[in-house]
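A student in our group prepared the protein record below, which I am reviewing. I have pasted the whole thing underneath without changing anything:
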Amino acid sequence: MNSDDRPTTLSTRPADHDRLQHAVELALQAPSVHNTQPWCWRIGADRVELFADRNRQLTGTDPDGRDMLISCGAALHHLQVALAGLGVATETDRLPDPESRDHLATVRTRSGAPNRADAALFGQLGRRHTDRRPYAQEPVSTAALRAMVDRASGFGTVLQAVTDPAAAARLHVVLAEAATSQPHRPGYLSELLTWTHRYANAHDGIPATSVPPRDAYTASYLRRFPSGQQAADPAFGPDGGLLLVLATARDDVPSAVQAGEAMSAVLLTATRSGLATAPLSQALEISATRERIQMEALRLPEYPQLIIRVGHPPADSAPLEATPRRPLRSVLHR
């Protein structure tokens, strides 16, 4: 275990309210579609409950709420990692209330040792940031890729690296077509502008400083957001990132939450290996394109839920700025 991965405490005593609250604050660093942070929480004496916040669902971009559920799944896994790193053993009940579709999970504390695999990722919670810049040409190592695949499989999901040139070419075509067609969908552009042009001192959305200028990209499918102000090396050639497709055996609400948990584990594992990551959901927000990715581009038996771009950050690049997060008081269930 690296020194920065070591849990802050190995105590197995029951969690107190302060530790539960601190864990939720750390979980707020999870990635979400357009940084909408579509979640809310309830903290009890021995549990934390996670709810989807439908007021933050992007109805034009994400009409079926799948992106929202994946985002909440990522926050759930961040919470599990935070609690394990704080020395708290837990058990998770997913979708515990059939009368409340938005109650996605209850994480209860229990006696015993915390999950070691989760605790090993604790030090990455504050280090992981979505890196939208072009990546270096250095390939992702086999060991790093295997670690990410193994993490994903632990959640019952499949993580496939698109290394075959023919499959990659087919996937790039579909992604580019999605990037061209999606802006014509009703409501999409207004949502995009809303969440990339937030008011001053906003605690959500994607600031221009987190997006490279459009001319930094050679691949059109990477140009989702308006041209930004993030520094990007103009000498870079084609993006060296590897595309990973995260897929599930079923295509329902539990699977979307499950995919979000797996995404979080993959991103934190990549960060631990010194890699840059960026989730790509655009092409999978269009039903026809998503089906083409599954059937034509990759010929998967599973349902693709998300694409993750992973690679080495640009050499001598400046550290990434953290995107804003809402304070705890704003995300507590009332």
Remarks:
- The radius of gyration is 19 Å.
- Residues 203 and 326 are 5 Å apart (CA to CA).
